[in-house]
Amino acid sequence: MRKRICRQGRRDSQFKEYSNRESGTIVTAISAATDIVTPLIVFKGKEQLAGWQKTKKEKEYWYCVQENGYMDSRLTLDYLGLVFRPETAPIAPGRWRLLVLDRFDCHLDYRVIEYCWQHCILPFALPPHMSHVLQPLDVAVFSSLSNAYGKEVNYIRAAVDKDMFPNIFSHAQQAAFTPSNIRSGFRKTGIWPFDPPQRLQNIRQPQLLSHTPSDSPPSSPRLSFTHTPPPPPNSPSSDLFYSPKTPTTP
Asked: Model's pTM, two decimal places?
């Protein structure tokens, strides 16, 4: 079902989709030097379909499929080993690279942390509920990306499928991931140039809750343990596949 959204008498209408929508994930990384790591697109599904690569692609991407369209620990290891490490190691040869992460479960998996330490990657997890304040992409890039993507979708006036999405996202990324926006994100968060008070001075301190002592002793917390499989070998798996831009339509 498609519905035209506009004021009466205006031509700058927008199309809104109400059905056949599904979740997916874009994984991307930037640096204070305005470097951009090749994005990873996670489509929802069980296997890659040939129909997703019918049209020529204007930019290189990494792809993978996952049943719910989200990242997990296994895909995070793949991304670090096949995308992030090879592309960032030449930028800082023999030196540690700081990787700022949110506290998504797969980022805190001990296998992911161990892999980072083994390859000169220093993972730093942001405090909970603070990515909108301390994450450069959230602060200065994603808003522009959302606006640019909306304009691209409205321009084509058609439902976006998995074959069309990479090129539409490429146009939006080019408009949003500008050197000025990237530098602004690191500057406003105080990460680079390093200036912690830049953002911390605007963070409201939490209010302390009053505590009423109780006559009964506090109950002991219940601890539960789950078996964790041993870490995989250092080399990542091959669930990700690389798709270079295609200069001509197949």
From this structure: 0.77
